[in-house]
Amino acid sequence: MASVTEKRSPVLTPQAVDFPRWYQDVVDKAELADNGPVRGTMVVRPYGYALWERVQAEVDTRIKRAGAENVYLPLLIPESYLQREADHVEGFSPELAVVTHAGGKELTEPLVVRPTSETVFGELMARWIQGHRDLPLLLNQWANVVRWELRPRLFLRTTEFLWQEGHTAHATRAGASAYARRIHLQVYREFFDDVLALPVHVGLKTARERFAGAVNTLACEAMMGDGKALQVATSHEMGQNFATAFGITHTDAAGRRSLCWTTSWGLSTRVIGGLIMGHGDDKGLVVPPVLAPTQAVVLVVKDDDATVAAAERLHEQLSAAGVRAKLDRRTDLGFGRRVTDWELKGVPVRLEVGPRDLGDGVVTLARRDSVERDRPTVEAAASLVPPLLQRMQDDLLRRGRERLRARTVDVTSTPEAAEAARSGFARIPWRTLGVDGEAQLAQNAVTVRCLQRPDGSLPEADDEDDLVAVVARSY
Amino acid sequence: MASVTEKRSPVLTPQAVDFPRWYQDVVDKAELADNGPVRGTMVVRPYGYALWERVQAEVDTRIKRAGAENVYLPLLIPESYLQREADHVEGFSPELAVVTHAGGKELTEPLVVRPTSETVFGELMARWIQGHRDLPLLLNQWANVVRWELRPRLFLRTTEFLWQEGHTAHATRAGASAYARRIHLQVYREFFDDVLALPVHVGLKTARERFAGAVNTLACEAMMGDGKALQVATSHEMGQNFATAFGITHTDAAGRRSLCWTTSWGLSTRVIGGLIMGHGDDKGLVVPPVLAPTQAVVLVVKDDDATVAAAERLHEQLSAAGVRAKLDRRTDLGFGRRVTDWELKGVPVRLEVGPRDLGDGVVTLARRDSVERDRPTVEAAASLVPPLLQRMQDDLLRRGRERLRARTVDVTSTPEAAEAARSGFARIPWRTLGVDGEAQLAQNAVTVRCLQRPDGSLPEADDEDDLVAVVARSY
Question: Best interface-test mutation with B: which of A31, A35, A43 has the largest number of B CBs within 10 A?
Answer without folding.
Answer: A43
